[in-house]
Each structure stands twice: as C-alpha cells, then as structure tokens.
C-alpha cells in the first residue's frame, strides 16, 4: 500500500471533506492466497467477511464485522421477514387448498411488521445503514398489508367495485416491486444468497401484482412459490447471523459474488 509522502502534498479540503478523508479505511490483502483482508489496523479472514454479508445484512464488500455489546438485530429482522413471507407465500401458492390469507395478518403486523421495524431501528444505532433502510421499509410494508385486512380500518371495504380493489392491490404490489428493484442494484457486491433473496422477492412482487390485476390463479400460485424461495434465503441469512463454532456443529458460509475489477489504464 502506498501512502502520501507528507501532509503538505495533500490538497486543501473543507471541514466535511477532511472529516471524510480521515474516516476512509485502507483495504489490503495478505497471505499466500490473499486469504486475509486488512482493513485499517484490523486483520480478518476473507471468509469471515463474506460470512458477515447476509448474517449482518450489510452488502458492503469489505464491511467491518460489527463489534458491539448488543445482539445481532439483522438476524432478528431476517427471521421476521423469512417466517412471514414463508407463510404468506404458502397461502398464495394455495398449499393445502388454502385460498384465504387472513390467518397470516396477525403475524404480518406484529412479527413481520412491528418487530422487523424495531430491528431496523436497532441497526440504525449500530451504524448499519442498509439494514436500517430495508428493515424499516419492509417492516412498514408488512404493517400496511396487515392493516389493510383489519376490518375496523375499512381499507378494503372502501372499494365497492371488486375489479377496482384487485387493481388497487396490484398497483400497491407493483410499487413495492419497483422499490425492491432499486434495492437489488445495491446487492451485487455481496453474496449469491444475498442477491437471490432480493431478486426472488422482487420477482414475487411483480408476479403477484400481475396476478391481482389479471385475476390469474396460476400467476398467484407462481408468485407464492417465488415468495417461499425468497423466504428460504431469509432463513439462510438468519442462521448465518446467529450460528458460530460455539453454538453449532456446522457453520453457514456464503458464496461471494465474483468481483469485477476495472482494467488499469
């Protein structure tokens, strides 16, 4: 690694730029096979950082593994997402001939919604911006979906035309599909399962939106199956975030996305 020869060679910066300059941590590699990653004054195994991606819900390629005295809120948030999505996905897929999804809405309000939102707030205080952003957003999605199906709110009852109701729900899901597509773009420097989670979730939103707006039962089942696949990725991340060599006989590892390096001029 090369460093500036002297402070006098540094360009003059504003206070904010100078603050940002001093907070940038250099990244280097060591070992015969570059198995170590050196970030600042800390040395990590490369596989430990990759293990941190999904388990701590941070897509930054060289994110420092969090060290704090609190628990892993990302594992909780992933569990909230995975369990709620799994149940709703099975309902949409008409498992056991279930066509009414109301039984999942208590889960979507209190676990998928409220608890996931709280997990996002906890990640905010731990400095994980991506987890804060996504958990609070999708926690709000589950809260909105659950409240839509609470009769006392009168949200669905306000639609007297059933066709308008289906189109309204379809547009609601379509908007979340577009939102998730933008989130997908932030994950391509992480791991395979991390990307798979958001790609399948995004696919599920679009397929279910089409199912509502067209009335296609086959599309509804397909959307449910895709949601189940996405939830399995969430379960994988949840286990990745809480398993270690002290509480488990096996360690969950993630497969990193190959890094695309720019050719030097």
UniProtKB/TrEMBL annotation:
Topological relation to the membrane, as annotated: Multi-pass membrane protein
InterPro entries: AceTr, Gpr1/Fun34/SatP-like
One Gene Ontology term, aspect cellular component: plasma membrane
Pfam families: Gpr1_Fun34_YaaH
One annotated GO molecular function: acetate transmembrane transporter activity
Compartments reported by the entry: Membrane
Domain of life: Eukaryota
Keywords, in A-Z order: Membrane, Transmembrane, Transmembrane helix
Main localisation: membrane
Membrane spanning residue stretches: 70-92, 104-125, 132-156, 168-186, 193-212, 218-239
Family assignment from sequence similarity: Belongs to the acetate uptake transporter (AceTr) (TC 2.A.96) family.
PANTHER family (alphabetical): ACCUMULATION OF DYADS PROTEIN 2-RELATED
Protein's recorded name: Ammonia transport protein, putative
UniProt lineage: Eukaryota, Fungi, Dikarya, Ascomycota, Saccharomycotina
């Amino acid at each position: 690694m090369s460093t500036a020869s002297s402070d006098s060679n540094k360009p003059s910066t504003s206070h904010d730029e100078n603050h940002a300059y001093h907070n940038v941590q250099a990244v280097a590699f060591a070992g015969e096979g570059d198995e170590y990653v050196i970030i600042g004054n800390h040395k990590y195994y490369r596989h430990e950082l990759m293990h941190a991606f999904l388990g701590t819900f941070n897509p930054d390629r060289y994110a420092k593994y969090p060290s704090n005295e609190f628990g892993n809120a990302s594992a909780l948030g992933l569990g909230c997402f995975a369990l709620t999505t799994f149940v709703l996905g099975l309902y949409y897929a008409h498992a056991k001939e279930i066509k009414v999804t109301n039984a999942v809405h208590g889960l979507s309000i209190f676990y998928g919604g409220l608890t996931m939102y709280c997990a996002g707030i906890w990640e905010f205080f731990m400095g994980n911006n991506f987890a804060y952003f996504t958990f609070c957003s999708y926690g709000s999605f589950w809260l909105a979906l659950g409240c839509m199906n609470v009769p006392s709110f009168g949200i669905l009852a306000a639609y007297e035309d059933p066709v308008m109701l289906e189109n309204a729900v379809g547009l609601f899901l379509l908007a979340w599909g577009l939102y998730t597509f933008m989130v997908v773009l932030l994950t391509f420097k992480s791991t395979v399962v991390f990307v798979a989670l958001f790609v399948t979730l995004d696919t599920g939103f679009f397929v279910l939106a089409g199912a509502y707006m067209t009335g296609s039962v086959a599309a509804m089942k397909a959307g449910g199956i895709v949601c189940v696949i996405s939830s399995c990725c969430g379960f994988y991340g949840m286990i990745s975030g809480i398993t270690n060599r002290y509480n488990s006989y096996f360690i969950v590892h993630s497969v990193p996305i190959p890094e695309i390096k720019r050719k030097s001029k």
